[in-house]
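Support request, please re-run this one:
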Amino acid sequence: MDSTRAPRTIGVTFFMKDAYPLFNQECAGMFGGAEVDLYFTACALARTGRYCVTFIVGDYGQPDVETREGVRLVRLNYSNLARYNRWYHKIFRRLYIVRELLRDRADVLITKTASDTLALMVFFCKLLQGKKIVFKLGSDIDADIGFWKHRSPLIYHLYKYALPLADAVVCQTQAQQQMLAPRLAARSLVIKNGFPLAHARQTPEREHILWVARLDYMKRPELFLQLARELPDERFVMIMPGSGQGRPDLLSSLRAAHNLTLLASVRFGDMQDYFNKAKCFVNTSTFEGFPNTFIQACLAGTPILSFAVNPDNCIGAYELGCWCRNSMEQAVGFIKSLDQRAIRRFGQNALRYVREHHDIVDKITQYEQLFDGLLRTKSIGRG
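Re-run finished. Output below.
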């Protein structure tokens, strides 16, 4: 055996079709926290030089295959719903998903959030080809299989079938792991979302109260509007992708508020500046997984005010801000209490927390250990 031979490359493929605008920020398109998490993970794995990283993405008019940030991007045909919205396009879309999964040469495939994609990966990649499938939860509802029974019966049955067959289930929090069925516990582990920490810092400029989320009922943007009305002397900023459509009465009220600025589109690369200048970041969602916006707030040393979401009690345990338990009175009182001294204290706690728990370098080490464990008994690589 030639001991001087270079280590074999491990193939890892990610599947989240809405992630392309993160790789190409000149491209307009909506994405969420799941896409951000896998984007950072894919890019960091590619930088190690040990992995051949592929990302299957949607159709934004880009080339069929291109490489950005060391990641090979494969366009999924018929995934542009604005152009391909007929009933038969749904069939074509599924056929192209199957085609790409059968053509893919990865040793490990990863997707996130409950969908029929996981079932397709399990059947065509694991059962037919012997590849390893990793599923990462994107929200607490992904740990509650029964949630999908009434929301989408098709997804419910496919997800219920596929989840136990995944080779590893990655949770964002300890709470998610505890929510999973006991039979999945042996194959579940916690890997928190990771961010690059190079620019983690506190800035003295604090100009506004910030809210960042898509236009969705479970995000409850109306609570942020109410907060703005309760605090007329504060400046409020909402970054709401997709706010050009849906809920016209709410949007009209948001635009009419004298102390609230509504932004429908901000490049991801420019987003952190809004956190850096925030006096407080507000989350009004009914549920989440672990919000990447919490991490972005911590990177800026910005206090967090959350109405309902408090994953693993991080807000209280690390003194990151206030979990007001849906109390508007308590939320208003917290913002009123935020003088420079309080902001600095919460901010220092936030910076310590994010460096300890969400450094992408540490997360990649955990993924590497996971991949090595999954592939230990399997001959891998491309020689």
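The two ends are 13 Å apart (CA to CA). The chain has two domains: 10-194+360-375, 208-357.
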